[in-house]
Specification:
Shape: globular
Order of helices and strands: HHEEEEEEEEHEHHHHHHHHH
Number of helices: 12
Helix content: 40-55%
Strand content: 15-25%
Largest sheet: 5 strands, antiparallel
CATH architecture of the largest domain: Sandwich
Number of domains: 2
Length: about 325
């Protein structure tokens, strides 16, 4: 992204924080007790937003705010009409803390988004969200993220479980969301690495929350965590499905059915995802050449590594390092 576009993005991000819709400037509906303290803290912070540091850009950061909307005529977003021809795709996450609004997928009935419910809006995609005429108002925290890796992961999860997610006030997803909203307002990160850590923490909290909603017993998540540990511990050797099955005293076929029934994934695909995730961390956290990263993460050669990385991350390792580094 050019310097002029980054500068424009920074100006627009700052303008969001000084708009009339900031929660500290507008009186909205009262929050339920479980959201009152968090909303009060963010509202107070929104009175004195902090300018972005020099390294704050779409590649290294994000934007967001705490807002109150009370005019149904002035709040309506269409997911297919938000980008210019050259604008990169992104996603928004919006968490209701008081009042309510509507989120609607094209061709389906609108769904009410009340306190403790959030939604992901992939831009572009066929959806809209808005303040209905009969709503008392809508107060919410929101973040907007361009990070292509996070966008790909969130889009995949949304396709599997839908855009709406229930967010318990004392849960990890709430904590990571509020951290990002606070960070968008106050820019209280030490550097871009701490920002990216917070963004990945948000991603993992969301994926865990979505998985737990389908896996109420927690068995699937425990299995994923255990198998992930086995895969990472085996590096630089790529552990195969037979070896994983042996750890559980099963045949390859039995373990594959067992794993997929509880996680929705095949063990081979999950193992590849884990190794690619480790490679992505190395790309951003070191200057190691691609050959070394490939071998460290269990890939036989850089060519095979680049092919698999591109399949899962939708860009080459070199492009990922350049875009995110």
């Amino acid at each position: 992204m050019s310097h002029s576009k980054v500068a424009l993005w920074r100006r627009r991000s700052d303008k969001v924080l000084s708009s009339d819709e900031v929660a500290s400037r507008t009186t909205g509906p009262p929050p339920p007790p479980e959201w009152a303290a968090a909303l009060r803290q963010l509202t107070e912070l929104s009175r004195t937003p902090t300018p972005a540091p020099s390294w704050w850009s779409p590649k290294t950061a994000f934007f967001g705010n705490i807002e109150t909307r009370t005019d149904p005529q002035g709040y309506h977003w269409d997911g297919m009409k938000r980008l210019g021809r050259r604008d990169p795709p992104l996603f928004f996450f919006q968490l209701t803390m008081a009042g309510w609004g509507h989120f609607q997928i094209y061709g389906k009935a609108p769904r009410q988004v009340s306190p403790g419910t959030g939604f992901f809006a992939i831009i572009p995609s066929r959806h809209r969200y808005y303040l209905p005429e009969n709503s008392p108002g809508w107060t919410f925290g929101w973040i907007g993220i361009y990070h292509p890796y996070l966008l790909a992961r969130v889009s995949k999860q949304v396709a599997a479980t839908g855009p709406l997610v229930e967010v318990p006030p004392d849960g990890a997803l709430t904590a990571s969301t509020l951290r990002l909203v606070r960070g968008a307002i106050k820019k209280d990160f030490r550097d871009r690495f701490e920002v990216e850590w917070a963004l990945f923490d948000f991603l993992f909290a969301y994926e865990r929350c979505a998985h737990q909603a389908r896996d109420s017993s927690g068995e699937g998540q425990r299995l994923l965590d255990a198998v992930r540990s086995l895969i990472v511990a085996s590096l630089p050797k790529a552990i195969d499905v037979e070896a994983l099955a042996a750890e559980y005293g099963m045949s390859r076929s039995h373990f594959s059915h067992f794993f997929r029934a509880r996680t929705g994934l095949t063990p081979a695909h999950f193992a590849t995802q884990v190794r690619i995730h480790e490679a992505a961390r190395m790309l951003l956290g070191s200057h190691a050449p691609l050959k070394q990263i490939a071998l460290t993460c269990g890939f036989p050669n850089p060519s095979h590594f680049c092919k698999i990385f591109r399949q899962l991350q939708h860009m080459s390792p070199a492009s990922y390092r350049q875009a995110m580094g």
